[in-house]
Design goal:
By secondary structure, the chain is of the alpha+beta class. It has two domains: 44 residues; 109 residues, Head domain of nucleotide exchange factor GrpE (Nucleotide Exchange Factor Grpe, Chain A, domain 2, Roll). Helices cover 61% and strands 16% of the residues. It is built from five helices and six strands, in the order H-H-H-H-E-E-E-E-E-E-H. The strands form two sheets. Strands 1-4-5 form a three-stranded antiparallel sheet. Strands 2-6-3 form a three-stranded mixed sheet, with no helix packed on it. Strand 4 and strand 5 form a beta hairpin. It starts with a helix and ends with a helix.
Amino acid sequence: MERRNADMQESEGTPSGDATPVDDRDRQIHELQSRVDELQRSVDSAKDKLLRKAAEFENYKRRVENDFANLVKNANEGLISALLPILNDFLRSLAQGKEEKGSEGFYRGVELIYTKLLRLLEQQGLVPFDSLGKQFDVEYHDALLQVPRSDVPPHTVVEEVERGYKLNDKVLRHAKVIVSAAPEANSGSVSRNSEDENGEGN
């Protein structure tokens, strides 16, 4: 009985030491969780920057590849452009040769050379485009002259003086054309007045 009382007194006189370790553990857990959150934010930020840089590099790579492909594709642009006047000379010679008699053999020879040269240039991406009968377009045509026409709408190409060409979907040379204009409104009345005056004079 005395032993039990002594133990109870000893137990009551000893202060509890469990509160401090629990608080320390909670604080450490909180600090560690804060550190984990901070590291996670750093990882997310670094990952976002890495993805952005990867996307920028991919765009740059694609742009460089496209530029290089266009450079290779149009590498002969200067040479082909210099050959276009020769094509025009061939076309003029062929147009005149049709009207001359007794030179069929020479005409066929010139036509054969022109066909071979044009085929060779077409293999390099050169393509002539048609203009006659089409609406005037500054992207494709250079207008040399406007002539009043009542049989076609205004701004229609009525004559192709010099053929236009594209190289790999790019206009290499504009076609030189003659374009229609609306006829003058008083042209008919002037003609009728002139006929009336001539009739009265007679």
